[in-house]
Amino acid sequence: MDIKRVAAAQEYEDFLPTSMMVHENDYDTLLFNLTGFKKEQVKIQLSKTGILKISGQRPVYKWQRFQKDIPVSENCEKSKISARFVNSNILCVKYPKLIISEDKKIKKLPASANEQATMEKTTLEDNADQNAPAK
What are the SHSP domain coordinates in residue numbering (predicted)? Predict the structure, then answer.
């Protein structure tokens, strides 16, 4: 007699790991607390639309899993995003910032005479004078 076992459907417990974003001059760093996860249980993908997808799953009494989709800013050098585990439980994802040379920055167009007059009236000092009580 041939007995076939039917595999029970895996049960998942979804959770959202705690995370923190650290902003620095050259790059931003996203830190995830993934206590109990191994490097092989975590997956990081960057979509063509600029969404960084971080997911993982591991067996416990049920399978634990998470997924976090993070839009990547325009000033990020997407080809140099890197990730590594620190202290065996913190996933550290670095987003290097694009370095734009001075000659590639957008130049501000000069304002017209009317726009310049309006801009001059809206400085803090001018507003303070206008709001002063009448004597």
Answer: 10-112
pTM over 0.70: no
Q: Mind giving me the DSSP string for the chain?
A: ----PPPPPPPEEE----EEEEE-SSEEEEEEE-TT--GGGEEEEE-TTSEEEEEEEEESSSEEEEEEEEEPPTTB-GGG-EEEEETTTEEEEEEEBPP--GGGSPPPPPPPHHHHHHHHHTSHHHHHHHTSPP-
Number of domains in the chain: 1
Mean pLDDT, range 19-37, rounded to an integer = 91
Domain-embedded: residue 60: yes
Q: What is the CATH number of the domain that holds 49?
A: 2.60.40.790
Q: Is residue 46 part of a domain?
A: yes
Q: Which residues pair with 55 in a beta bridge?
A: 43, 67
pLDDT (tens digit, 9 = 90+) per residue, 105-123? 544 445 544 444 444 433 3
Q: Would 132 be classed as within a structural domain? A: no
Residue 121 forms part of a structural domain: no
